[in-house]
Design goal:
Layout (H helix, E strand, L loop, with lengths): L2 H6 L1 E2 L17 H5 L23 H4 L5 H9 L7 H11 L4 E4 L6 H15 L14 E4 L3 H14 L6 E5 L5 H10 L3 E4 L1 H9 L10 E4 L2 H6 L3 H8 L7 E6 L4 H10 L4 E4 L10 E7 L5 H8 L8 E4 L3 H13 L4 E4 L5 H12 L5 E4 L14 E4 L6 H8 L9 E7 L4 H11 L6 E2 L28 E2 L1
Parallel strand pairs: 2-7, 2-8, 3-5, 3-6, 4-5, 6-7, 9-14, 10-12, 10-13, 11-12, 13-14
Antiparallel strand pairs: 1-4, 15-16
The structure holds adenosine monophosphate.
Length: 461
């Protein structure tokens, strides 16, 4: 199966919905493993959850249906994250929500679970979705996030018959058209390609019940405001709207005022705060010595799975070449790579076949790679908010990680803007022989509060 086929249509694993009543643990462990499109779970057999961690009442009290709790249990989650605790009950009540939460907080399950429940509660038995009719639409800024959200629907909806389709550009239109015309319950889409389909009348939103704007700040940053306006103009006024954003600049507030009705704001942590489990540090280093410093750092213990952000495609390729020259396995992910190449790079990284993934901004949101040990900003992010999103890659729900930023002399001002946004000073790590140190002229006002990496040869200040 080609990569395109794989990501064009993902029909959720079918299962007859149990009638309302006590929780039926519906699928055996074996059945859980069979996630092919054709697998039917027809018998309700008691599950053997002994191998799975016990779920606490935090989840069972949220008001979720048994089959969703089963899926959550299968995912191995025991306790809802704060955003899930707040958002799920409100979303189940049908309220409009503004979720101020970044990637890594569990926000995707926070909206996916209540949406699935809403669609199941309102569905008519096993009747297929009528052609062209979509009941939930999730708009995402990037194809990577689009795929991640779609996977989330598949994961939590595995005991249901809901059909979900990811719709993004850079792949042929026809397979998506075919699927849309067959009938899809949930569309997860990037705005540009979705508008193409809307213009071709491949999809109609007359029956839409729920609209989600995921990473709204990022969508606006990417210039999607006109597309969002055109899309929202075509969906029913009476709907539930959920907006998620890591930051709340005035533009996002204006968007929320326009699209949401009496929204409740749920917020995790401080606004724009970096994921709290992440330890960050800045390495002052001249621009032309960044690759050398990188190779040095990668010799450290624990640098097992490292995601590197480069500002340019050319820079990303250069870093990969340099690392490979030193015998370090690395791969690049940027807009010049085909979708298939990008998916392969991500898979190789996820599976640990390569240690280092060097990505440009395309990968910065929606890249759900668990177990990243470090994020390195090879270049200082141009937008301070991007810093928060990038380091969200390591501060996963429960994991911890380190985020390092290489700062050339001409990037000092940008680091300062980041510090203003996150509301704290980032410790500097000085590596003798690399630090332009006294020449940077920014003083020693930042102090090290934690030990971001064992840099024996390094002097921390
Ligand atoms: P998100 O913020 O939606 O990108 O989710 C971040 C990561 O946390 C994903 O890998 C999820 O699978 C994981 N996750 C979501 N909810 C929970 C939970 N309640 N317990 C543990 N991990 C979770």
């Amino acid at each position: 199966m080609s990569v395109d086929d794989t990501y064009i249509s993902q029909t959720l694993m079918p299962k007859t919905l149990p009638p309302a009543g006590p929780a039926t643990k519906s699928a055996t462990k074996t059945a859980r493993k069979k996630t092919t499109k054709t697998t039917k779970v027809t018998k309700a057999v008691p599950s053997a959850p002994a191998v799975l961690p016990e779920m606490d009442s935090g989840f069972t009290d949220l008001g979720l249906m048994p089959q969703l709790l089963d899926a959550v249990r299968d995912a191995g989650y025991t306790t809802p994250t704060p955003i899930q605790q707040q958002a799920i009950p409100l979303a189940l009540m049908g309220r409009d929500l503004i979720g101020l939460a970044q990637t890594g907080t569990g926000k995707t399950a926070g909206f996916t679970l209540p949406i699935i429940q809403r669609l199941l509660e309102g569905s008519h038995g096993d009747a297929p979705a009528s052609a062209h009719r979509v009941r939930a639409l999730i708009l995402t800024p990037t194809r990577e996030l689009c795929i991640q959200v779609e996977e989330s629907f598949r994961k939590y909806g595995k005991h249901t018959e809901l059909r979900v389709l990811p719709v993004f550009g850079g792949v042929p239109v026809e397979p998506q058209t075919k699927q849309l015309r067959k009938g899809i319950d949930v569309v997860v889409a990037t705005p540009g390609r979705l508008l193409d389909h809307m213009e071709r009348q491949n999809v109609v939103f007359d029956d839409l019940e729920v609209l989600v704007l995921d990473e709204a700040d990022r969508m606006l940053d990417m210039g999607f405001a006109p597309q969002l306006n055109r899309i929202v103009a075509e969906v029913p006024r009476f709907r539930q709207t959920l907006l998620f954003s890591a930051t709340m600049p005035p533009e996002v507030e204006a968007l929320a005022r326009k699209y949401l009705r009496k929204p409740i704001v749920v917020q995790v942590g401080r606004r724009s705060s970096a994921a709290s489990t992440v330890t960050h540090a800045v390495y002052p280093v001249p621009r032309d010595r960044k690759t050398e410093l990188l190779a040095e750092l990668l010799k450290e213990k624990g640098m097992d799975s490292v995601l590197i952000f480069s500002r340019t495609k050319h820079g990303a390729d250069k870093v990969v070449r340099h690392l490979e020259g030193k015998g370090i396995s690395a791969t690049a992910m940027h807009a010049d790579k085909s979708q298939a190449e990008r998916m392969r790079a991500l898979e190789d990284f996820k599976q640990g076949k390569v240690r280092v993934l060097v990505a440009t901004d395309i990968a910065q949101r929606g890249l759900d790679v668990s177990g990243i040990s470090h994020v390195i900003n090879y270049d200082v992010p141009q937008q301070p908010e991007d810093y928060v999103h990038r380091i969200g890659r390591t501060g996963r729900a429960a994991a911890s990680g380190d985020a390092f930023t290489f700062m050339a002399p001409d990037e000092i001002a940008m680091v300062r803007s980041i510090e203003r946004i996150i509301g704290e000073a980032i410790p500097r790590i000085s590596v003798p022989g690399y630090d332009f140190g006294s020449k940077e002229g920014e003083g020693n006002e930042t102090e090290v509060r934690s030990a971001p990496v064992t840099m024996n040869r390094g002097r921390r200040r």
